[in-house]
Design goal:
By secondary structure, the chain is low in regular secondary structure. It contains two helices and two strands; from the N terminus they run E-H-H-E. It starts with 5 loop residues before the first strand and ends in a 15-residue tail after the last strand. Bound molecules: iron/sulfur cluster (2 copies).
């Protein structure tokens, strides 16, 4: 878990498809909302891009992403 890596949503691009919310099993997103709201950034897995990979609108970037380093999904497959 980390606070140096977590998703930042571009709401201008987001079409509220729900894919990111449904994908993440680490409590990062508010599951009660159809709009992706990051409520628990500490739960995000360092360098995981599982939700970004599913986003059809290129609306997810990551705090802490400087373009270097590995991008992966976490061991649970999210
Ligand atoms: S990057 Fe991975 S751990 Fe972080 S919010 Fe997206 S799916 Fe969850
Ligand atoms: S996957 Fe992308 S378009 Fe869909 S709700 Fe998440 S940020 Fe919005």
């Amino acid at each position: 878990m980390t606070t140096s890596w977590y998703p930042i949503i571009n709401y201008d691009n987001c079409i509220e498809c729900g894919s990111c919310i449904n994908k993440c099993s680490h409590g990062v997103y508010d599951k009660e909302s159809t709009k992706p709201i990051v409520i628990y950034p500490e739960g995000c897995i360092d360098h995981c891009t599982g939700c970004q990979a599913l986003c059809p609108a290129e609306a997810i970037q990551y705090y802490g992403d400087d373009g270097s380093g590995p991008k992966t999904t976490c061991s649970c497959g999210c």
